[in-house]
Amino acid sequence: MWGKWSDGKVYIPYYITNHFSSREKAIITRGLESFSSFSCIRFRPSRSDDRDWLQIESQNGCWSYVGRSGGKQVVSLARSGCLYHGTVQHELLHALGFNHEQTRSDRDNHIQVLLHNVVSGMQHNFNKIATLNQGTPYDYNSVMQYHKYAFSRNNQPTMLPIPNPNVSFGNAQEMSSNDKARLNTLYKC
After folding, report:
1. What pLDDT shows up at residue 132?
2. What is the DSSP secondary-structure string of the chain?
3. How much is the pLDDT for 166?
4. Backbone φ and ψ of 75, nearest 5°
5. Global pTM value
6. d(CA 5, CA 121)
7. Is the pLDDT of residue 121 over 90?
8. Is 133 in contact with 106 (CB distance < 8 Å)?
9. What is the predicted pLDDT for the residue at 133?
10. What is the pLDDT of residue 16?
């Protein structure tokens, strides 16, 4: 986890590399700043004396390590396909310590994973793990929930909701109220 300061805020330094256009930087900055409206998380530009910081780069795909890893911590937001508000929030939630919704420890009561439809080598995205649920219910509207056809190898669903397979999920454009509640509980905001 990232540490809390005496003022009750969690300041997380970031650096946005200069291969983004001004419009792309604005999307990233809006995602960073959105956290301050509902939590004690404050992303701020990095300084030369910061030991740990998020370095936002355009690498291959949208990804981040889960939690604080120390030193320069890359968050990849590829210029093609990742520059959306919800995607920025999703990757920042990873950096803050959160996993995907479909990997939740209680997911088998809410979602059926169809591994036979998943692209070879991508099954790890559906591994059930001990997640930080923070007392919140499974959330189909979480920004951390993949869509029904995520990593499909055959245009068939890789996940189906239980008990109603027709429930819509994985379409979040921004963090849900449960996403915010989990964050605020974990960081004691």
Report:
1. 77
2. -PPPPTTS-EEEEEEE-TTS-HHHHHHHHHHHHHGGGTSSEEEEE--TT-SSEEEEE--SSEEE-SS--SSEEEEEE-TTT--SHHHHHHHHHHHHT---GGG-TTGGGTEEE-GGGBPTT-GGGG-------TTPPP-TT-TTPPPTTTTBSSSS-SEEESS-TT---S--SS--HHHHHHHHHHTT-
3. 92
4. -120, 115
5. 0.94
6. 41
7. yes
8. yes
9. 86
10. 98
Q: Which amino acid is at 180?
A: K
CA angle 60, 66, 71 (to 5 degrees): 85
User: Which one-letter amino acid corresponds to residue 133?
Assistant: N
Sign of torsion over alpha carbons 34, 179, 167, 145: positive
Residues with catalytic annotation? 91
Q: Cβ(79)–Cβ(22) under 8 Å?
A: no
Q: Residue 104 burial (CB < 10 Å; 0-12/13-18/19+)?
A: buried
- In the chain, how long is the greatest CA-to-CA distance? 52
What tokens appear for 82 in the block?
């990742």
Res. 131 pLDDT band, cuts 50 70 90: confident
Our CA angle for 158, 138, 107, nearest 5°, is: 50
In this structure, what token pair is assigned to residue 104? Answer: 């939740």
Instruction: Please give the pLDDT value at position 45.
Output: 98
Q: Amino acid identity, residue 66?
A: V
